[in-house]
């Protein structure tokens, strides 16, 4: 079996695949190495042969995690490293090593799925967009706060904005003007997200007309899906890129 890990700033997204056919065995999201251990130990017949990960955490934190996996499962974990070019895709950053590895893998996975120009939108704590030409040239992208960051900033810096996550979820049942603070904040953040996404779509159309594919990934992808009816929603897009960057042969 193959263990794949996407180590973000707050959470670890994981999945286990069969080696031979690549079929999914199990998947989940955890907040710590200990929670990951508990989740993996709960998989009947788990027998890890390979492990690979992408991490935006510090080198020390990543090394601690790989050592933890080695001690508990006797498996060596391969990590993704920055690259100027890989599998027909050219990194567009002036300093290629400074492009976030999660973005790099997402655009790598998207290009190999589309086989043509693509716009990659990752909607999580932060929101990122990346443009890749039909020739595999990464043209750059944008980064802005996602809904969680916008919400938390308003809660932190505005004394009278106080509500819980359940109220926030309920408020997003509509995009009519809010008649309470929670509705006004949540719907306002959602509309800002939609506005950003629409701008990215227009820019991609300036580049390529209609000859491109849009990919959506990240926890808030479904908030904008109706704005982009032709988009492919792929929660595991980073894992697709991870398999390209760290093949087991």
CATH architecture of the largest domain: 2-Layer Sandwich
End-to-end C-alpha gap: 14 Å
- Major β-sheet annotation: 5 strands, mixed
CATH superfamily of the largest domain: ATPase, nucleotide binding domain
H/E element order: EEEHEHEEEHEEEHHHEEH
Total helical elements: 7
- Report the count of strand segments: 12
Low-confidence stretches: none
What does the average pLDDT come to? 89
User: What is the count of structural domains?
Assistant: 2
The CATH C-level name of the largest domain is Alpha Beta
- C-alpha Rg, in Å? 19 Å
The shape is globular
The main sheet orders its strands as: 3-2-1-4-5
CATH overall fold name of the largest domain: Nucleotidyltransferase, domain 5
Quote the beta fraction: 15-25%
Class by SSE composition: alpha/beta
The helix content is 25-40%
Keywords: ATP-binding, Coenzyme A biosynthesis, Cytoplasm, Kinase, Metal-binding, Nucleotide-binding, Potassium, Transferase
Binding site for substrate: 93, 100-103, 181
Binding site for K(+): 122
Function: Catalyzes the phosphorylation of pantothenate (Pan), the first step in CoA biosynthesis.
Task: Give structural attributes.
Nucleotidyltransferase, domain 5, alpha/beta, kinase, Type_III_PanK, 24% strand, 249 residues, ATP binding, single chain
